[in-house]
């Protein structure tokens, strides 16, 4: 699958997480809103944990250190949902 130039240049600028929705403001002026239900770790997190996020790299992704969740802006633009089930550490 190829990646479009639009996805490559899209960068997160700000993040808001409500009880039902994840909203990411992009530095180019666009806003992405997706159902929080797509991301079980975020759903299961407390409001304080969901509010503690960090921008990865130059805005290519978002990291929630308290919830061990990482989302890419390109994945959000494609409508990619988080995988179900717990993360496992490779042996």
Summarize the structure.
The mean pLDDT is 88.
Query: What is the global morphology?
Result: globular
- Give the SSE string: HEEEHHEEEH
Q: How many β-strand runs?
A: 6
The number of helical segments is: 4
Beta fraction of the residues? 25-35%
How many angstroms does the end-to-end distance come to? 30 Å
* Oligomeric organization of the protein chains: single chain
| Average predicted local confidence, pLDDT | 88
Query: Superfamily at the CATH H level?
Result: Uncharacterised protein PF10387, DUF2442
The largest sheet is: 3 strands, antiparallel
Structural class: alpha+beta
| Main sheet strand line-up | 1-2-3
The CATH architecture term is 2-Layer Sandwich
CATH domain topology: NE0471 N-terminal domain-like
Determine Rg (CA atoms, Å): 13 Å
The tally of domains stands at: 1
Q: What does this entry look like structurally?
A:
Helices cover 23% and strands 31% of the residues. It has one domain: NE0471 N-terminal domain-like (2-Layer Sandwich). The longest helix is centred in the last third of the chain and has 6 residues. The strands form two sheets. Strands 1-2-3 form a three-stranded antiparallel β-sheet. The protein has a three-stranded antiparallel β-sheet with strand order 4-5-6. With 91 residues, it is α+β, with helices and mostly antiparallel strands.
